[in-house]
Design goal:
By secondary structure, the chain is α+β, with helices and mostly antiparallel strands. Helix content is 35%, strand content 31%.
Length: 86
């Protein structure tokens, strides 16, 4: 699948610590190859229509939407901040 970053995702990305950026890069490679990889812990965000979340690590998440063969990356950041405003 192809990845497309939304402007909000880019703004969030710039604020991330370097170590989290490295982990995120690895997770984005995994999600583009296998959306159902168990290490991603992909699940639908409650209260949202067609918005999903995946893990970067224990404390960081990213949200995304899927349209056809494109994954639209919406937000990335600390768990609660990201999931409260996906």
């Amino acid at each position: 699948m192809k990845l497309h970053r939304l402007p909000r995702f880019d703004r969030d990305y710039k604020k991330l610590p370097v170590g989290i950026k490295t982990k995120l890069y690895r997770q984005l490679k995994v999600i583009s190859d296998n959306l159902q990889h168990p290490g991603l812990h992909v699940k639908k965000i409650k209260g949202q229509t067609d918005v999903w979340e995946a893990r970067v690590d224990k404390f960081y998440r990213f949200s995304f939407e899927i349209s056809g063969d494109i994954i639209y990356l919406r937000r990335v950041g600390p768990h609660d901040k990201t999931l409260n405003n996906p």
